[in-house]
Amino acid sequence: MLHRNNAAMHKIAECLAYSSLGGSGEMKDATRLAVVTGGTGGIGRAICLRLAREGHKVVATCHPTEEQAALEWSTEARKNGFEIGVIAGDVSSAEESEAMMNRLEERFGKVDVLVNCAGITRDSMLKRMTAEMWDAVIETNLSSVFYVTKPIWNGMLERGYGRVINISSLNGQRGQFGQANYSAAKAGMHGFTMALAQEGAPKGVTVNTVSPGYVKTAMTDAIREDIREGIIAGVPMKRMALPEEIASAVAFLAADDQAYVTGANIPVNGGLFMH
């Protein structure tokens, strides 16, 4: 459970992030509220900006340890004409996730679009993988999808509208050496998608997965050059995806008129894996 001091600090930060909106909690010239977990990462930022460009109100979640950097990015985005709210919470915790989503809806309104993008890696061959490495990835990448979606799910059903989009991975489809934890979590995300899509379909709530391949971000730029070149050589398109290309797939699924696509897994991997 969040300590009172932390909750107060989060409230101040959220107000600062929305100070240009006159404290109303309402964004200008927007219709639906979209929330992107892990929204200040490389892919998350691109998704936030694309959804804002599409006319959504957008709030990015971040881990409490990254709140200051997230607020700085929000300020920079505002200078470029994008109003991106920031709210902090640990999505690997059921209690903190529920508290965060409750605070979010109290301040910014009901969530119409949820993009579950938060994720980490703790890579290791299984013979050297610790229980802590396994748990960290499963809790952050998979359990968080349940923790964050659950508090807003009933509201979507009651309103008869909702878009839940889970950012999985190519490696959740084909597996990856040294990533038993990550591959299991990402595969589980799409299982969650398919099950929840069946629950949401009668009420007009769609649930889908986007599975990126290798994406050009600060993380992949840090890979040793020869290894990175070897990865690219194996991709039929001979390049990594741009974060904006992942964001484009998300925007497609988030649109009001995509009401008949549900339970799908959209691969954005340059042809690296086809099935």
Largest sheet: 7 strands, parallel
* SS class: alpha/beta
Q: Let me know the average pLDDT.
A: 90
Q: In angstroms, what is the radius of gyration?
A: 18 Å
Q: What are the SSEs and their pairings?
A:
Layout: H1 4-17, E1 33-37, H2 42-53, E2 57-62, H3 67-79, E3 84-88, H4 94-108, E4 113-116, H5 131-159, E5 162-167, H6 170-174, H7 180-200, E6 205-212, H8 218-221, H9 225-233, H10 243-254, E7 265-268
Parallel strand pairs: 1-2, 1-4, 2-3, 4-5, 5-6, 6-7
Helix pairs in contact: 2-10, 4-5, 5-7
Can you give a write-up of this model?
This protein has about 280 residues and is α/β, with parallel strands linked by helices. The chain has a single domain (about 5-270), classed as NAD(P)-binding Rossmann-like Domain (Rossmann fold, 3-Layer(aba) Sandwich). The chain is about 50% helix and about 15% strand. It is built from ten helices and seven strands. It has helices at about 5-15, 40-55, 65-80, 95-110, 130-160, 170-175, 180-200, 220, 225-235, 245-255, and strands spanning about 35, 55-60, 85-90, 115, 160-165, 205-210, 265-270. The chain has a seven-stranded parallel sheet, sandwiched between helices. α3 (about 65-80) links the parallel β2 and β3 (about 85-90). The radius of gyration is 18 Å and the shape is globular. The N and C termini lie far apart (about 45 Å). Residues about 1-5 and about 15-30 have low confidence and may be disordered.
